[in-house]
Amino acid sequence: MIELSNHTDDQLISTAIKQMVNYGQIFYRKGWNLATSSNYSAVISANPLRLIMTASGKHKGELTHSDFVVVDENLQTASVPGFANADSLKPSAEAALHVALAKIPGVKAVLHTHSVWSTILSKLYFEQGYIELCDFEMLKALPGVDSHETPVRIAILDNSQDIDALAREVTKRLHADKNQHAFLLKGHGLYTWAESLEQARNQIEALEFLFEVVGCSGDKH
Ligand SMILES: [Zn+2]
């Protein structure tokens, strides 16, 4: 058992789990995380870094309190006061990306979806390297955007089963541009991160809405 100071408490963990269970059901109904796809995490301690995240192989529309694990910055499961990891559970296969994003100062939550439109658009715009969203009122749901006329570029990275390499690439890009709050993986889906689970949820909803609008309208961006 690793002792954490007052940074972690039962309430924080159970609230984060409740929110992620709820978001799993909402996103599932929207078709954004069918089957066992997608994963979610919340930072429960910044120092030492501890994330509560969805365990590998769980259906996101049917998550329960027992489908989560706590991981440290080395992707090892770590018990914390008020929460014991089940031996049978492994962290999500994409845990390295969550940890890389959680290391950004101020980031408290990372949400990832596999929607139809993020999959289609990430392939359609891959050669361009990004999709630019502009002239949409919904953009104002994103951090730092206070006008529909503010263009927002969502980078598109090549997909890979080498998640450690992807995590290094993401860290490099975020170093170069600290204003990003989302990216797409080609043929895979959307990652977004925020200062809270609620804000990350808002970003998922806004971006998935915008991808659907762009995809259905057929306009090139
Ligand atoms: Zn994924």
Question: What report would you give on this structure?
Answer:
- By secondary structure, the protein is of the alpha+beta class.
- It contains five helices and eight strands, in the order αβββαβαββαββα.
- β7 (182-185) and β8 form a beta hairpin.
- The radius of gyration is 17 Å and the shape is globular.
- The model has no long low-confidence stretch (mean pLDDT 91).
- Bound molecules: zinc ion (ZN).
- Residues 37-38, 94, 112, 114, 188-189 line the site of zinc ion.
Keywords:
5 helices, alpha+beta, globular, 221 residues, binds zinc ion, 33% helix
Q: Secondary structure elements and their pairing?
A:
Layout: H1 10-30, E1 39-46, E2 49-54, E3 68-71, H2 95-102, E4 109-113, H3 116-124, E5 130-133, E6 152-157, H4 163-176, E7 182-185, E8 189-194, H5 197-217
Parallel strand pairs: 6-7
Antiparallel strand pairs: 1-2, 1-4, 2-3, 4-8, 5-6, 7-8
Helix pairs in contact: 2-4, 3-5
Summarize the structure.
By secondary structure, the protein is of the alpha+beta class. It has helices spanning about 10-30, 95-100, 115-125, 165-175, 195-215, and strands at about 40-45, 50-55, 70, 110-115, 130-135, 150-155, 180-185, 190-195. The chain is built from 5 helices and 8 strands.
